Amino acid sequence: MTRVTFLHPDLGIGGAERLVVDAALALKKYGHDVNFVTTHHDPEHCFLETKDGTIPVTVVGNWLPRHILGRFYAFCAYIRMIYAASYIIFSDHRPEVVFCDLVSICIFVLRLRIPYVVFYCHYPDQLLSYPGGYFKQLYRMPLNYLEEITTGMAHKIFVNSCFTSNVFKNIFKRLKIKPEILYPSINTDFFDKTRIVSIERVIDRKLPDDSIILLSINRYERKKKLSIAIEALAELKKLLTKEVYKRVFLIMAGGYDKRIEENVEYHLELIGLADELHVTDKVIFLRSPSDIDKVSIIHHCKIVIYTPPNEHFGIVPLEAMYMGKPVIAHNSGGPTESIISGKTGFLVDLSGEAFATKIAYLITNSNHLEDFGRSGQCRFSETFSFAAFSAQLNKAINDLIDTKTK
Fold first, then answer.
1. What is the largest CA-CA distance in the chain?
2. Alpha helices of 65-196 — where are they, by DSSP H?
3. Domain 190-383 maps to which CATH number in 3.60.10.10, 3.40.50.2000, 3.20.20.70, 3.90.1310.10?
C-alpha cells in the first residue's frame, strides 16, 4: 500500500476538482492510502466524497491572503501552495507520492523530501491569466518562468487531452518532456447508486410533464460563454413551432462561489440577458447544485449544451454521454476528442444560432435523441471508462514505486 497525498489549491466544485477527487477514489479502490491537503475547503461548496469522510481532507494556510487589494492572485496562490507543500514534507506521516495539479510551484519544495511527485497539467496556468498591460506582463514573467521550470521537476506529468498536450509542447519549450495523456473519467459507481429525484424537487418549480429540458452545466465564469446557451434558447423560437417551443426550458447549473466576484457578477449578467431576450420564464438558474441534484437534472434533460471555447477537456460531456444524453458543444479543445459530431452529439460554431440549429434538429427528430444517447454510452465505455482511468493511474503510481525499489 502506497501513501498518496493529493495537493490541490482550492478543493471546491469544478472540473479540475472532480478529476482529482476521482483520481483519489481510483487509487483508494486499488488499496492505496489517500488523503487531500488543500489551502481551502468549504463543506458547503465541495464534492460529497470530501465532505463525508470518504477521503480525509486537511486544510492548511487558509489564513494566507488570496489576493492583495484585488490583485496578485497568482502570486498569492504560489505562496499558499508553497506553505501547503512545506506542511506535507514536515508532516509525521509523510507520503511516498504527492499528486499535485494546477499550481506547479509546490513541486520544488516537495522534491526536497518526497520520493515521487506526479503533476497533472489541466492547462498551463500562464494561459489562464487574463491579458494585461506592460506591468501585468512584467509581473507574469517570473511566474511563467517558475511554472515551466517547476513543472519539469515532476517525476511524472499527465495532461488531460491531445489538445492540452500540444499546448504544453508549444508553451513549455525548455522542457524536452512528452507528457502522458490521462483522459478524465467520472465516478460511475456514484452515478449508478444515486437515487434520481424529481426535477421539481431539484429546481423548486413545477414544469409541464411534457417539458423539453435543455441543460448547461459550467461554472459562472465569463470565459465559459454561458450567454450562448441563453441566446440559443431565444433563437429556438424562430425554429420551432409555437406549441413545441412553449415546452422548452433551459436549466443553467454551475459552480458558484460568493467569494469570487466574477461568479456573482456573471450570474447577474446572465439573469439580465435572459430578461433582455424575453426568455426569463424559460430559464432556471441553479447555483452549485449538489452531486445528487446534478445527476438528477442530467437524467431529466433531453440535450446537454456545452458552450466553453477551447476547453482543455471538459468533464460534462462525459457525464452526459454516460447517462445517454446527446451533447452540443463548441468545435474546439477537448470536446473535439470526446464528442463524435453527428453520432454522439454535434460540434458547432460559437453562436446562439449555431447551437439552436442543432438543438432544433434533435428536438424535431426525436428518434435521434435515443440514437445519439446510445452511441454516447458506447463511446464512454470504449474510451473514457472509470476502470480504464483507474488502471492507468494505478499503473503509473506502481511504476514509480517499482523504479525506486529496483
1. 71
2. 73-89, 107-110, 125-128, 134-151, 162-171, 188-193
3. 3.40.50.2000
- Give the 3-state secondary structure of 226-238: CHHHHHHHHHHHH
Q: For residue 156, which phi and psi values (nearest 5 degrees)?
A: -145, 135
Beta-bridge mates of residue 306: 329
Q: How confident is the model at residue 404 (pLDDT cuts 50, 70, 90)?
A: low
**Interatomic CA distance for residues 359 and 230, integer angstroms:** 13
pLDDT tens for residues 168-225? 999 999 998 999 999 999 889 889 999 999 999 999 899 999 999 999 999 999 999 9
- What backbone phi and psi angles, to 5 degrees, belong to 248? -90, 130
Distant-in-sequence contacts of 151-154, Cβ < 8 A, 24+ apart: 151/104, 151/107, 151/119, 151/121, 151/175, 152/177, 153/104, 153/107, 153/108, 153/111, 153/117, 154/104, 154/107, 154/117, 154/118, 154/119
Instruction: Report the interhelical angle of 366-383 vs 352-364 (nearest 10°).
Output: 110
Residue 191 is placed in which grid cell? 452515478
3-state helix, strand, coil in the chain (%, to 5): 50, 15, 35
What 3-state class would DSSP assign to 35?
strand
Exposed/middle/buried for 403, CB within 10 Å: 0-12, 13-18, 19+? Answer: exposed
pLDDT band at 96 (very low <50, low <70, confident <90, very high): very high
Degrees to nearest 5, angle at CA 101 with 331 and 69: 95
Q: Give span(s): CATH 3.40.50.2000, the chain.
A: 3-185+386-405, 190-383
Coil/strand/helix, residue 92: coil
- The C-alpha cell at 306 is 456545452
Tens-digit pLDDT profile for residues 290-323 = 889 999 999 999 999 999 999 989 999 999 999 9
Nearest to 254 by CA among 267, 273, 272, 265: 267
Comparing CA positions, the residue from 277, 384, 295, 300 lying closest to residue 338 is 384
In this structure, are residues 319 and 186 in contact, taking their beta carbons and an 8 Å threshold? Answer: yes
